Amino acid sequence: MDLFERNELRRFVGRELLLWLWFESELFEGTLQTKAHGAFGLWIEGRLVMSQGQEATTIRGSQPGNHREAKEALLRGKLPDAASLHLSWNEQDAMFTLKAETLNIAGLKLPRKRRDETPGDAPGAAVSLTRIDGPVKKARPKKRGNTAADVMAFESDEAHEDFYERMTMTREIESIVEALYRDFLSLRLSPAWEAVIAPALEAWSSGEDVDADAYAKSRAKALGAARSRPS
C-alpha cells in the first residue's frame, strides 16, 4: 500500500468515526461514555464540514449537526471531513476540531480560571475557554510594596502552574478521544456493525427514529465481546 492509499484509508476511517460520533451524540443527547472514563458530554458545536468528491459543505452554528442542511448533505452522500466538538468532563469544558484526514486534534480551547478571583467568588465562576496556543496573561500580586523580584517569582509560579494544568487537561482530552476511537474500531470490525450500527446510522440519517435503549444494549454487548477476545 503506497502513501496515497494509506492517506485515503485513514481519511475514510476518520470520516466514519466523525459520522459515528455525530450519530451517537444525537442519539444519546450529548452524553457518551467509555469504560475508562465513564460518562461525559460530547457534541458538535460551532462548525461541521462535509464533502463528497470536490463538493464541500460547511455548516456553522451552535448545533450544526441538527441543521436541515447537514442531514440533507448526508442523504446526498456527503460525509464529515471535520467537526468542532465540545467536550464536558469532570466539571471542565473544552472545544477542539477533529479532522478526518489526520485524526488530529486542532484548535484546542481549554478552560482557564482568571487569577484575579477574590476569595468570595463561587468556585468556577470566572472560567472561560481560551485557545491552548494563546498568550498567558499573568496577574500581578495585589499587595503593595512588592519588589520586582517578588513579582517575577509570582509570575513564574503562576505560569508554571497554568502550563501544568493545561497540559494535564490536554492529556485527559487525548485519552478520551483515543478511547472513543478504540470503541469505534472495535464496533467497526465486529459483526454488530453490519447487523446493528450501520442500519441504525442509515435510519438516523434518513430522519427515522432509532431505539436508543436497544442500540445501547447491542453496542455494549459488542464492545464486551471485543474486550474479552485475546489480544
Enumerate how many helices there are, as a single number: 5
Q: Ends: how far apart? A: 25 Å
β-sheet strand percentage: 25-35%
The SSE order reads HEEEHEEEEHHH
Secondary structural class: alpha+beta
Number of β-strand runs: 7
The low-pLDDT segments are 114-127, 132-141
Q: What is the overall shape?
A: globular
Compute the average pLDDT: 83
Gist of the model:
By secondary structure, the chain is of the alpha+beta class. It has helices spanning 3-27, 68-75, 148-188, 191-205, 212-228; strands at residues 31-34, 38-52, 55-61, 79-89, 92-99, 105-113, 127-131. A hairpin with a 2-residue loop joins strand 2 and strand 3 (55-61).
Key attributes of the depicted protein:
5 helices, alpha+beta, globular, seven-stranded antiparallel beta sheet, 231 residues
Give me the secondary-structure topology.
Layout: H1 3-27, E1 31-34, E2 38-52, E3 55-61, H2 68-75, E4 79-89, E5 92-99, E6 105-113, E7 127-131, H3 148-188, H4 191-205, H5 212-228
Antiparallel strand pairs: 1-2, 2-3, 2-4, 4-5, 5-6, 6-7
Helix pairs in contact: 4-5
